[in-house]
Amino acid sequence: RRERQRFVDKNGRCNVQHGNLGGESSRYLSDLFTTLVDLKWRWNLLIFLLTYTVAWLVMASMWWGIAYLRGDLHRVHDDTYSPCVANVYNFPSAFLFFIETEATIGYGHRYITERCPEGIVLFLFQSLLGSIVDAFLIGCMFIKMSQPKKRAETLMFSRAAVVSQRDGKLCLMFRVGNLRNSHMVSAQIRCKLIKSRQTPEGEFLPLDQCELDVGFGTGADQLFLVSPLTICHEINSKSPFFCLSQRSLRSEQFEIVVILEGIVETTGMTCQARTSYTEDEVLWGHRFLPVMSLEDGFFRVDYSQFHATFEVPTPPYSVKE
Questions:
Q1: pLDDT tens for each residue of 211-255
Q2: Quick count: other Cβ atoms within 10 Å of Cβ 195?
Q3: How does strand 161-166 pair with strand 282-284?
Q4: Do residues 118 and 88 lie in contact, with contact meaning Cβ atoms separated by under 8 Å?
Q5: Can you give the pTM of this predicted structure?
Q6: Domain extent at residue 152
Q7: Residues 33 and 77 in one domain
Q8: Per-residue model confidence as pLDDT tens digits over 27-71
Q9: What does the H/E/C string look like for the chain?
Q10: Domain check: are 185 and 245 in the same one?
Q11: Per the domain annotation, does 16 fall within a domain?
Q12: What is the predicted pLDDT for the residue at 162?
């Protein structure tokens, strides 16, 4: 079967684009910091470079303008004249003075004198503006670098989900794993069933979301994710798969969205990993191969068998049947 359009990709990216926002697009500018953090790295680096470049050129031009208006540029060799900034006689020297001041390098060759009130005011303005720009841009870059998105890439989901019996009950199961030695604190898993339906009143819901119980009442959704775990959804009378059989599975169209959340142990930041399973990726009558083995003093996880399944005898009928 041809692969159809997903609501959530296997890597967790949501296939939703917002268009025709109209006047609502101004909300992005009202929260400029979050907007910059959400941008891609190439745009962040471009904005970072352009902001500093423009700010440096503008401030250096202001220092050069003060020297030009005071006539300091024409009295460079007059030892009796006290300029606003010593040894500033052209734009490159004004730019170097600004950089020395902004970066607190202080070579000592160029310095501001006390007979220049406009230079003192510009110096204070430069200090305030530089602090604001540094705090905003460097804070944005730090938050973006410390985002736990890359941590989510080391959380694995099985490529397929399986339907088989466990403890005498028909269950929908999939597997999750953590590739790092660092743990996910307070890890919790949730599942959503995305399926189109029509209400008794005739309203068509194209992407109706329904909760799949993966142990919310028993606490099984709270995971101790130090080794691969098999997440189980019991198909009963309260499950949306109550009428699902092996034959009807071939004609169904649905998507199961899995959301794994937890706190990264090393940084304390909340991490979320997502994936999805369409009806083509649900294997009826299969079970996952074991991946745990006991070695000399420790347990070994064989991730080469993480996605592997094998067939088991499973009734082809639905729970309702």
A1: 999 988 888 889 998 889 999 999 999 999 999 899 998 888 899
A2: 18
A3: parallel
A4: no
A5: 0.75
A6: 148-309
A7: yes
A8: 777 778 888 888 888 988 999 999 999 999 999 999 899 888 888
A9: CCCCCCCECCCCCECCCCCCCHHHHHHHHHCHHHHHHHCCHHHHHHHHHHHHHHHHHHHHHHHHHHHHHHCHHHCCCCCCCCCCECCCCCHHHHHHHHHHHHCCCCCCCCCECCCCHHHHHHHHHHHHHHHHHHHHHHHHHHHHHCCCHHHHCCEEECCCEEEEEECCEEEEEEEEEECCCCCEEEEEEEEEEEEEEECCCCCEEEEEEEEECCCCCCCCCEECCCCCEEEEEECCCCCCCCCCCHHHHCCCCCEEEEEEEEEECCCCCEEEEEEEEEHHHEEECEEECCCEEECCCCEEECHHHCCCEEECCCCCCCCCC
A10: yes
A11: no
A12: 95
Helices (H), the chain: 26-30, 32-38, 41-70, 91-102, 117-145, 149-152, 246-249
Domain count for the chain, please give it.
Answer: 2
Phi and psi torsions of 177, nearest 5°: -150, 160
pLDDT the model gives residue 28: 72
Report the pLDDT value the prediction gives residue 170, as an integer from 0 to 100: 93
Read off the CATH number of the domain in which 156 is found: 2.60.40.1400
Closest to 158 measured CA to CA, from 83, 108, 232: 232
- Asked if 82 contacts 115 with a C-beta cutoff of 8 angstroms, the reply is yes
Structure-block tokens of residue 165: 């019996």
Structure tokens at 285: 């009558």
Distances (CA, A) of 129 to 50, 55, 100, 102, 118: 16, 9, 15, 10, 16
Same domain, 153 and 294: yes
Has residue 25 got a pLDDT over 80?
A: no
Taking the C-alpha atoms of residue 261 and residue 271, their distance in angstroms, rounded to an integer, is 6
Structure tokens at 146: 């410390």
